[in-house]
Amino acid sequence: MPNFPPDFLWGVSTASYQIEGAVRDDGRGVSIWDTFSHTPGRVRDGDTGDVACDHYHRWPQDVDLLAELGVGAYRFSIAWPRVQPTGTGPAVAKGLDFYDRLVDALLGRGIAPVPTLFHWDLPQALEDAGGWLSRDTAHHFADYTAAVADRLGDRVRRWITLNEPVVHMAEGYALGTHAPGRELMLDALPVAHHQLLAHGLAVRALRERGAAEVMITNNCTPVWPAGDGEDDLVAAAVYDGFHNRLFLDPVLRGEYPPFAAGLVDAGVVRDGDMDVIATLMDALGINYYNPTRVKAAPDGAPLPFETVEIDGVPRTAFGWPVVPDGLRELLVGLHEHYAGVLPPIYITENGCSTVDVSGDDGRVHDAARVDYLDAHLRSLHEAIVAGVDVRGYFVWSLLDNFEWAEGYSQRFGLVRVDYDTQRRTPKDSFAWLRAALAEQR
């Protein structure tokens, strides 16, 4: 692995519903993922996050793993229904106590806590009142943010407001493949605005409480037209607009791309909203997994584009194309397109699902993950050499976990979790990364 800047931040990431379990402990309320995963046919094999990795009870062991790995930061998410069971009202002390203990333990091991305030587990009561289609949810999120920051802000330096609002809008509200399972297609666009408004309000709440560094994490992808024809070029531009620009232009430039003007016409965007959304951030989180290849959709299709496979490249166990240079392409493209307004970047997720092999020696062999991480880190280094200001990199994920609609069928972790016994076994990729990070010091 090439040498990165001496102050480069190395970390790993997880998310609350994917690892915590304990869904009924200490006053936690019901989230949309509790409801969704318990609805027959929604999640592969009927899996739920009821237990997941039991991190809520086994977190000291997981902190030990972080220390053994040698990372300088841990990105986790806070479960809104643990703090406010119905999404409003007074915070539940026991819910905040859990994160309080976690933060103290991380700091005691020299690991910086990087909490994400929303990673898709919306309180079900708020969804029943409209969810992210309702403007009120953005203001409730600001109140929730204030409650968390009041408790943890004296020790947490770096905050992330939302995780991948594009994925939550598209999968949860447009296509219905994630919680809450709505199938609104383009009528889901108000979800984008209300999430971004929530982000801006949260940034202001965190600023008022002395936060040193605040960012949003967006899932971004290079978009490749399937052909050279005008139709495919237009389709790629439209997809880029929906996936990337819709969530970058507002926070970086204070405006929506032209295609989203309908939000204004529909009265979703109100006076002053864009100023709130564009409240200055200290950094931008980017989650990268792969490029997206796009062609024009046939006449009468509900969307003007279709995604098509990228041929001639390896694939993860999930079937996602492995294109390490796409990370460099993405970052250099953002650096050029948003010149003058792009803040420093953290890669807040990058990783892959693999078919791991347990050997007779008791080790878990995941050579494909080692190759994936090594190649992407080399690509990342090339972007830094090209002038992109990247300050840190977080692997997804520390642990095998509940992979949303795929249940437990996909394993992204540096550490294997036996879901029957909850035994943790560091994989070969864990040992490789530990050695690579030691060389960076």
Q: Give the full name of the CATH homologous superfamily.
A: Glycosidases
CATH topology: TIM Barrel
SSE topology string: EHHHEHHEHHEHHEEHHHEEEHEEEHEEEH
- How much helical structure, as a percent, in the residues? 40-55%
Specify Rg, calculated over alpha carbons: 21 Å
What is the CATH C-level name? Alpha Beta
Span between termini:
13 Å
GO biological process, one term: cellulose catabolic process
Family: Belongs to the glycosyl hydrolase 1 family.
Binding site for substrate: 18, 119, 163, 289, 396, 403-404
Organism: Couchioplanes caeruleus subsp. caeruleus
Write the layout of secondary structure elements.
Elements: E1 9-13, H1 16-19, H2 32-37, H3 55-69, E2 73-77, H4 80-83, H5 93-108, E3 112-118, H6 124-128, H7 135-152, E4 158-163, H8 165-174, H9 189-208, E5 213-219, E6 223-225, H10 230-253, H11 261-265, H12 273-277, E7 284-287, E8 292-296, E9 305-308, H13 325-337, E10 345-349, E11 357-358, E12 364-365, H14 367-385, E13 390-396, E14 415-418, E15 423-426, H15 428-440
Parallel strand pairs: 1-2, 1-13, 2-3, 3-4, 4-5, 5-7, 6-8, 7-10, 10-13
Antiparallel strand pairs: 8-9, 11-12, 14-15
